[in-house]
Design brief:
The chain is 39% helix and 21% strand. By secondary structure, it is of the alpha/beta class. It folds into 3 domains: 64 residues, no CATH class; 166 residues, Rossmann fold; 71 residues, no CATH class. The strands form 4 sheets. It has a 5-stranded antiparallel sheet.
């Protein structure tokens, strides 16, 4: 599936590029001349691969395919080698890390991250949030950032937005997809994610809860929101919800981690394992690591889930039951009848 980016502020061979949409070829990279993103420039420059110079990830954003009016060449991730695809996936997560830092610095005020469960998107964001909060705790300052998981009512969301409405605050909503299916919550989220200079949030209903907690019925939101979701916005079928999701995308940065296939998920597991961050606490060694990943790869369509969590579960069985770990894995980690 082809991705699309809008270059808000960049240049190609001394030609300024402002608010132009291109098919994405390769993600943001930092070279000797600074940061650049590789796009298909056929429509504007007659070349299918051009490097557009951008100062930072904030100078471009991922957009929906409907914003591109040119022709799209058909291409699939299967044209890439495993090594190329792993590098591509790693770059996406590096971008997530960079954009989280930018939110903490106040350079990005709204970010939506879409990706399947168990691939590390929460860990990447939480790691930066925890680091920032640690520095604030050491300085004896109340942490200005929080990660909220699970479901949230509309008034609960309003309260959290108020709590983290000050400039420099970051509220992370992790897997709180219930917000997207509630009209009131969705409108609150739209207000918080708006790219306008003034983001005023209103609660126009009578509420004893707000009165008892001395929370006003309106306030200016100056913080940042990072919304992590398993939902892939461009695959939603409901026309009503789709309109809302497109409105959200237009208001902020939208990063799709593009882990769309079983192959992608296996390669993500291989990437983290290769970096030494997946099985390091289990002490199974490089041979055991290779055996586990090869087993998961061979049975990828039978696993209940392909994720980093599942890889750790299989590794635990491998270590605890060396003589029959495969049978234990089939019984506890694979679909019935597999």
């Amino acid at each position: 599936m082809t991705g699309f980016v809008k270059i808000k502020n960049g240049s190609y061979r001394n030609t300024a590029i402002t608010n132009e949409v291109f098919p994405l070829v390769k993600h943001y990279t930092v070279g000797t001349k600074g940061g650049f993103i590789t796009v298909d420039g056929t429509g504007m420059f007659g070349k299918d691969k051009i490097r557009v110079l951008v100062d930072a990830p904030t100078d471009f954003e991922f957009v929906h395919a409907t914003e591109y009016t040119g022709e799209v060449k058909t291409a699939t991730t299967n044209e890439q080698s495993d090594e190329e695809r792993i590098a591509d996936i790693a770059m996406r997560f590096e971008m997530l890390d960079t954009m989280t830092k930018a939110a903490l610095n106040g350079d990005i005020r709204a970010l939506i991250v879409s990706g399947p469960p168990g691939v590390g998107k929460s860990f990447t964001v939480e790691h930066q949030i925890e680091r920032a909060n640690l520095f604030q705790q050491v300085a004896n300052v109340k942490p200005k950032h929080e990660v909220v998981k699970g479901s949230a009512s509309a008034i609960g969301l309003y309260k959290k937005l108020y709590e983290y409405s000050d400039e420099g605050s970051v509220l992370v909503l992790d897997d709180v997809d219930s917000i997207l299916f509630d009209e009131v919550s969705l409108n609150l989220l739209k207000g918080a994610l708006d790219s306008g200079k003034n983001r005023k949030i209103n609660w126009l209903l009578e509420s004893r809860i707000l009165k008892n907690e001395d929370i006003p019925n309106s306030f200016n939101f100056k913080g940042a929101v990072i919304f992590l979701t398993n939902l892939k916005f461009d695959q939603v079928k409901s026309s009503k919800l789709k309109d809302h999701l497109e409105a959200l995308q237009s208001r902020c940065h939208y990063l799709d981690l593009t882990l769309d296939t079983q192959r992608d998920k296996i390669l993500r597991i291989k990437q983290i394992a290769k970096d030494g961050a997946l099985f390091e606490d289990l002490g199974i060694g490089s041979i055991g690591q290779e055996i586990i990943i090869d087993f998961m790869d061979a049975n990828k369509n039978k696993m209940r889930e392909l994720s980093l969590r599942m890889a750790i579960k299989v590794a635990q069985l491998y270590k605890s039951f060396p003589n029959n770990w495969e049978a234990m894995t089939r019984a506890t980690c694979m679909k019935a009848g597999a």
